[in-house]
Amino acid sequence: MRVSLKDVAERAGVSVKTVSNVVNDYPHVTPAMRARVQRAIDELGYRPNLTARHLRKGRTGIIGLAVPELGNSYFAELAGAVIDAAAQHEFTVLLDHTQGLREQEILVCQGFRARVMDGLILSPLELETEDLAARRDDVPLVLLGERRYDLPYDHIAIDNIAAARAAVRHLLALGRRRIAFLGARQDRSHPPAHLRFIGWQAELAASGLAADERLAVTTRGWGHAEGARAMAELLDTGRQVDGVFAYNDLIALGAMRVMFERGLRIPEDIAVVGFDDITESRYGAVTLTTVSPDKEAIARLAVESVVGRLKSEHNDEAPRPSRELRPGFTLVERESTLGRQALPVTSPNRPW
User: Fold this and answer.
1) Do β-strands 289-293 and 329-332 pair in parallel, antiparallel, or remain unpaired?
2) Cβ-based neighbours of 189, under 8 Å, separated by 6 or more
3) In degrees, to the nearest 5, what angle opens at C-alpha 227 toward C-alphas 170 and 188?
4) 148: Cα within 13 Å, side-chain hemisphere
5) Which of 8, 48, 141, 244 sees the fewest Cβ atoms within 10 Å?
6) How far from 254 is each of 194, 274, 302, CA to CA, in Å?
7) pLDDT tens digits for 286-326?
């Protein structure tokens, strides 16, 4: 038998409106009254009808998440974190992928599916400032990633330059001096790749080493195949390399496969650092040292940003100023730089 608001009101000895105010988290309820109603809710096992609640507020209870590629493990894991974070606020997530195409990103941010979404979290790759400036949809928008826009939208991204420098610094501390960067872009127009390239250059310069741009290998994509192709190209040039910093884990894992095929030992001959800390990085024959962005924090901040703006609108408050939010990152050291013997069996960096 479904418990109603009226049942809770009778148990608590208050009006249905008071129960509704508590259930909908209205601010103007005394702590004592809130505790009284909550006790009745717990005793009766009341569960709110979320669909009805959102509709009463003129909402759908859905937040959109648009990423470049759901097949990419990083974005898949981030999507899972966003879904978990949204559930804490009783929202459902609608997933979309743009394939990193400008026209798809425009379609999403200009209000496609606006009638079914209360807010949008977008990770753009090609979207331009004028595209966002032309936006007429008033659904709250939060931007993820390294593309920067001088517009009033919350923006969430880790410090890619600092993260890249930490990766290169780790390799330098291990005595590596010929450190390649796999995943550069020919035109330097892709923000994440360019920022990580800058970090690679900067840390080498800080150590007194000139960055040899012949060791910065460009890729057309971000998957295993491109990592394998880039590593083969680098080795075929005959240039000496004893360390690799890869744009992401997928490129790093593809590169490591080529190293195995060429009879190179990891990390004895070449130490490798990736980026993203995807699950796959923990389960290879050689586990991968990688930069681990705080995906849970990224997801939490993104959802909280959307929900906060929705609450401001509902309470007729002044619009919140836009914010630049910087989640943290860590460098997870594993076998691809330290070797199997350097990590104890009980190390948290091992998957078992």
Assistant:
1) antiparallel
2) none
3) 80
4) 11
5) 48
6) 20, 11, 31
7) 999 999 999 999 999 999 999 998 887 766 565 677 789 99
